[in-house]
């Protein structure tokens, strides 16, 4: 009987903890992420110190960039799915496999070029004192380097 009571108490405690975590996630942490105007400010905007005008331009550029990137990534996923489906065939030649791999690589190249163009466009709206900060943030994002 004592085991059942202990098990029941543990289940109740876990339910309460999960409920608390859900409430915290959906109701309390959302308020901390909001800017005073209700706009979500990214750490990039804060790190570079963009003005309101620059921030508006950056948000427009970011939305356009991620919209284009989403289309490219969807295409890459579709090509990969077809390539994986073809790999089930035993008579797939090495040259045909190379053609598919080259096709995927071309799409990846387009995504990298798009990212480069986006960083250049954002850099063009910055003041001279903001450019080094932007460059260091781009290094961290693109190359995965951590600042120690």
How many H/I helices? 5
Distance between the termini: 55 Å
Report the sheet with the most strands, covering strand number, pairing sense and barrel closure.
none
Strand content: under 5%
Indicate the radius of gyration in whole angstroms: 24 Å
Give the beta-strand count. 0
State the helicity in percent bands: over 70%
Low-confidence blocks of residues: 34-40
CATH domain topology of the largest domain: Four Helix Bundle (Hemerythrin (Met), subunit A)
Query: What's the SSE pattern?
Result: HHHHH
Mean pLDDT: 81
Number of domains: 2
Structural class estimated from helices and strands: mainly alpha
Can you identify the CATH class of the largest domain? Mainly Alpha
Known CATH architecture of the largest domain: Up-down Bundle
Shape: flat
Labels describing this entry:
2 domains; mainly alpha; 148 residues; Four Helix Bundle (Hemerythrin (Met), subunit A); 5 helices; single chain
């Amino acid at each position: 009987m004592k085991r059942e009571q202990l098990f029941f108490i543990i289940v109740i405690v876990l339910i309460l903890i999960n409920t608390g975590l859900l409430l915290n996630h959906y109701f309390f942490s959302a308020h901390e992420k909001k800017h005073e105007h209700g706009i979500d400010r990214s750490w990039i905007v804060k790190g570079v110190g963009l003005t309101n005008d620059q921030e508006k331009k950056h948000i427009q550029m970011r939305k356009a960039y991620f919209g284009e990137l989403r289309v490219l990534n969807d295409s890459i996923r579709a090509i990969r799915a077809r390539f994986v489906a073809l790999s089930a065939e035993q008579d797939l030649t090495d040259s045909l496999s190379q053609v598919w791999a080259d096709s995927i690589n071309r799409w990846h190249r387009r995504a990298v070029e798009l990212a480069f163009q986006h960083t250049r466009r954002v850099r063009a709206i910055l003041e001279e004192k903001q450019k080094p900060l932007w460059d260091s943030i781009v290094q961290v994002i693109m190359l995965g380097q951590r600042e120690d």
